[in-house]
Design a protein that fits this description.
homodimer, alpha/beta, Aspartate Aminotransferase, domain 1, Aspartate Aminotransferase, domain 2, 2 domains, seven-stranded mixed beta sheet, four-stranded mixed beta sheet, 5-phosphohydroxy-L-lysine phospho-lyase (chains A, B), pyridoxal phosphate binding (chains A, B), PyrdxlP-dep_Trfase_major (chains A, B)
């Protein structure tokens, strides 16, 4: 046992298996990593071995950022009462967030997790519209709560059940979906599939409360929605009295580089009715949020039933959130995401010419993914090879993970301080590992 | 504007009304307090005016306890990655919690709020039993999520809807309910009402997944379950294949003084199948938990669907939780709750002889309440008088609030460092205010 541990790794693992619900899988579950320290984009295990972290999107401004720690500690020392007492932090934080959003999105609800945010979004949508049904995208994941498992095809398909009020539209995936990069107008074509779903809902005598989608579908495989899709969908949803909920839990706070929110990639004409935020918001501190219009908020207040979230919007959580906004700005992390993400994407794209398995490289800013395929024509997902890639990169002290319906997409959602050198190191290693796989295949 | 404010109070209030969802009401909403600093059981407003805090059960070991702040800051500086990486804190914390519980309750799931905990409890119960229905107590509140509004009569009655899978049993209230303090065996009588509800469920061809109740119903009016009730209910629920969920979100962590968990007041023979914990767990840090049996946890794992909670069980949350356990122990806060709570209850009981409005004084440790009534025979709830009491105490810099179906119960759930002097000060003021109300009434 090292001096930085309470238990040696074998013991920790043994205790974990016994004491902690096994429904939560460890990273690299066959040979998990024990991390005791982290800084920026680097993780350190109990022996001081350094790992490059390409997946911790929660630790948005870098692991253990000193300004965030300082802000949290200072506020913890002063006050951490609940939001039934008046306090400046909550209103100041709301003002700062409002400045990043279209003016229409002006009423905030602070909560403790992306799941709490998405559940509240659902409640707001239903209360406002007085409708019940929800249209979601295939393969979507919106959180671990009962109501969110219900609207997450990624989960409810595995459980073999679908609620009668949930309706699934195709993922607007131009690499694997029905309408691909060669289609003249995939945005319109995919939006029309949503329209068809809405029509089916109505033909059953039901009514749509919300269209619910991540602004960039993440578990779905780091999908970039075709430009124009969201506006058209919003138009169809509004026409039947529903609202558009943009789940920005994974994608917000400047990760896409060019904009603060991924939905803004769809142009200024598009504005969701409800936006949910989470993971990166507190850099690891449990903090999340729902923002909506004054009209929807009013409908929720007018039902006369109070909504109180015990920890939501407390002075410490807000101080942490404010510090994160400050660091994003002071360290120009959006510009960094754009520059480094752009370079990383370029380097990965370059690999396509040399490796037949590099099926697609996609993403914006530091929200990127590449898909491994067995062949370029059929685009057969190379699931095992992707798992092999993850394993091999881990041996080279680089942490990545996979996503997508076939776990064939290797994803990058690193802390926003990820550097050019990090990008080059990762791609160099991927290049070698791909060459290794190809040699291995040639030998078979 | 004072030097400790970002905005003056009028401005803060104005911003709050515009920017923050109005579904969350402020304390003393007609004239809210702005709190900028707190320590122990004392709150300080922007002008340095001190308030005695009788209601912040979340700040369990006292507002801004330095050991909690220190533990949080130290861990924030070191690491705050998610629980997919192996870490000692989560297993160490689970071990410490396990030591306070019956051995049967051995598998932990860490989450961010009591609501997340109760939702997960519901998922565990349903997965294990493969049943859907839930029996709850009247007036219960279990959280703000969609699934929990459904099982909270306190909320769903206001919305005018009840799900077909939710069934309500009477609150075992020996002061106001059907079976009162004069009944020879209220525990058996109230347990039988649950049996009747279960029988009705079965007669509809439905099946019970869980009986879900706070160990001491809180929103229901600081109710003490009659001894033996829980064991009998558990027997009836188990007989039909359901599980017993004890919601300890408000009542756990030694608040009752004699035991660590309020369900333990029902004797050693009683052990719930699932226990949820929340509010006081992190002294204000968003931290909550579900603990269950190995068997129920296994059923949840075996469904093959992963449960991942992004912030749940992170090293900082666990460090905070561990510090709270340490302070409870080091400062003998359970003994303090017993001693001070006992004294407070005695002093309040004494008031009954002098004030006809003092209807009932009940509670254990620092979970106490007294009920104001218009008359001792009919026990007519004195709702307005209770509101008046809250207002008058606030003018004397003492914060309390009301609960119960008629908001006629003035409740005490102060930080556990509440002192004998605090108790005497509160009761002295209540005495005077009651006398004032009586004089006023006499004048009418």
């Amino acid at each position: 046992m090292t001096s930085v541990e309470l238990y040696d790794k074998t013991k920790t693992l043994e205790m974990r298996k016994k004491l902690i619900g096994q429904s939560c899988r460890l990273f690299f579950s066959e040979d998990p990593i024990k991390i005791v320290r982290a800084r920026g984009q680097y993780l350190y295990d109990e022996n001081g071995v350094e790992y490059l972290d390409c997946i911790s999107n929660v630790q948005h401004v870098g692991h253990c950022h000193p300004l965030v720690t300082k802000a949290a500690a200072a506020q913890m020392e002063l006050l951490n009462a609940n939001s039934r007492f008046l306090h400046d932090n909550i209103v100041h934080y709301a003002t700062r967030l409002a400045a990043t959003l279209p003016p229409k999105l002006s009423v905030f609800y602070f909560v403790n997790s992306g799941s709490e945010a998405n559940d509240l979004a659902l409640r707001l949508a239903r209360q406002h519209t007085q409708n019940e049904d929800v249209v979601v995208l295939d393969h979507a994941y919106h959180g671990h709560l009962t109501s969110l498992i219900d609207i997450s095809p990624y989960k409810f398909r595995k459980l073999g059940r679908q609620k009668e009020w949930v309706h699934v539209a195709p993922l607007p995936d131009t690499y694997r979906g029905e309408f691909r990069e060669t289609h003249p107008d995939p945005a319109q074509a995919y939006a029309d599939t949503v329209k068809e779903v809405i029509d089916q809902v109505h033909s059953k005598g039901r009514k749509v409360a919300a269209f619910f989608a991540e602004s960039l579908p993440s578990v779905g495989g780091q999908i970039i929605m075709p430009y124009g899709y969201c506006s058209k969908v919003a138009e169809y949803v509004h026409a039947v009295g529903g609202v558009y909920v943009a789940d920005e839990v994974q994608t917000g706070f400047g990760r896409v580089g060019s904009h603060y929110w991924a939905f803004q990639l769809q142009g200024e004409a598009f504005c969701p009715d409800i936006v949910t935020m989470g993971k990166p918001m507190g850099n690891g501190h449990p903090l999340a949020c729902v923002v909506t219009t004054a009209e929807i908020a009013k409908a929720f207040t007018d039902n006369g039933v109070e909504y109180f979230n015990t920890f939501g919007g407390n002075p410490v959580s807000c101080a942490v959130g404010l510090a994160v906004l400050d660091v994003i700005e002071k360290e120009n992390l959006m510009a960094n995401a754009l520059r480094v993400g752009g370079h990383l994407k370029e380097l990965l794209t370059e690999l396509q010419s040399r490796h037949a398995m590099m099926g697609d490289v996609r993403g914006v800013g530091l929200f990127l993914g590449f898909e491994l395929v067995k062949d370029q024509t059929e685009r057969t997902p190379a699931t095992e090879e992707a798992a092999h890639m993850v394993k091999k990169l881990r041996e080279r002290q680089i942490c990545v993970s996979t996503d997508g319906p076939w776990e064939s997409v290797v994803k990058f959602k690193p802390p926003m301080c990820f550097s050019m050198v990090d990008a080059e190191r990762v791609v160099g290693n991927i290049d070698e590992i791909l060459a290794g796989i190809e040699t291995g295949m040639a030998q078979v």
